# Entry
Amino acid sequence: MTLPLDIDEEIRDALEGGRPVVALESTIVSHGMPYPQNIETARSAANAVRDEGAVPATIAVLAGRLTVGVAEADLDSLAKAGRSALKLSRANLASCIASRETGTTTVAATMIVAHIAGIEVFATGGIGGVHRGAEASFDVSADLQELSITPVAVVCAGAKAILDIPKTLEVLETLGVPVTTFGSPDFPAFWSRASSVPSPSVSNSTRQIAREFLLRRNLGLQGGQLIANPVPPEDEIPAAIMNPLIEQAVSEAREQVTGPSVTPFVLGRIFELSEGRSAKANEALVLSNARLAARIASDLADLRKKG
# Structure
């Protein structure tokens, strides 16, 4: 069976020519922010990638076809659909394709499609991870397992701060996923630059990160790597301010919602409790991650050309 895969001509030309390409997810457009902030941030992220000399490749499934390089009109439709859009991860990606439905790709699904297309670097907001209370609920994001098996370098602002960050890092270590924080000894907590958890590794060089990625391929090591990029200092909400808001939102969620409704509820309450600051920080970190990912992709392309 032929895989239903559509790759935008500019992206295909860049890949065939060995030029840098950065994958961008579409769930951040449908589920991450309200309209029109979501579509505006998506455009800004793509422009940020271009400004650093790389080609952006937003990924989604459109009418059952894996789409690498979503057109502007389709992206706007996904943004307007919001949370009503089908959210795709490893478990339901094939089902969406088989039924010829449309859906937006999470971190895990974006990694899968990026790898199929030949894209090695992916910029997102924050990865999923181990949820608080996972020792009872077993609620662990598929993103972590995906990082251990799919060879894509993922640039993020750390794990989402509503998660159990120490347990998330423990699982990543167990799975053999290399975690590097760019320019800071502390692993970031999404809206905050530091989570109070030391980073497993630190790098100040995108060249070094790109070299490590290539060496892992040459060593035959499975999986990708995680690059944590702290939110810019001027845009962060310090943990001392953010943590009490998160605790309040999580506490309210336990009393009012269950299942898949928990995360949207918590994020919504944090937006309200922070008086909108969380959304501004979210937008800033997405753009920062896009820029860093583009620099890493450019270094990867350059190292490959030099052999």
In short: The chain has 13 helices and eleven strands.
